[in-house]
Here is the input.
Amino acid sequence: MNQGAIPDESPRNLPEQLLLQDAKAGNCRAIQGGPDDILGDVSRLVALYGGNSEDWYKMTSIQAFTINGASVQIHWFENAQILQQVELKFKRQYPKIAPKNL
Here is the structure.
């Protein structure tokens, strides 16, 4: 199934805005992609945004803030040749709560 573009997600609050600003300032790293680790979404990304398969990476912010009880990081896709950043999303992970023993 080839889905279209996924719109960028906007920050919900000031800490998320600061996290986004920090990531876009270069405090980020690739977690998948490039010529040796082609993304599963690469054909969709190339069809929508152009570029070559080996130029697309999945990126993440290095920082993870705790905001309203959730660990928050930012993920997006980036074309390393033209530095195009698309499909930005905030990954919010809430701690798992162990069931109480009754």
User: Anything to note?
Assistant: The chain has one domain: 14-93.
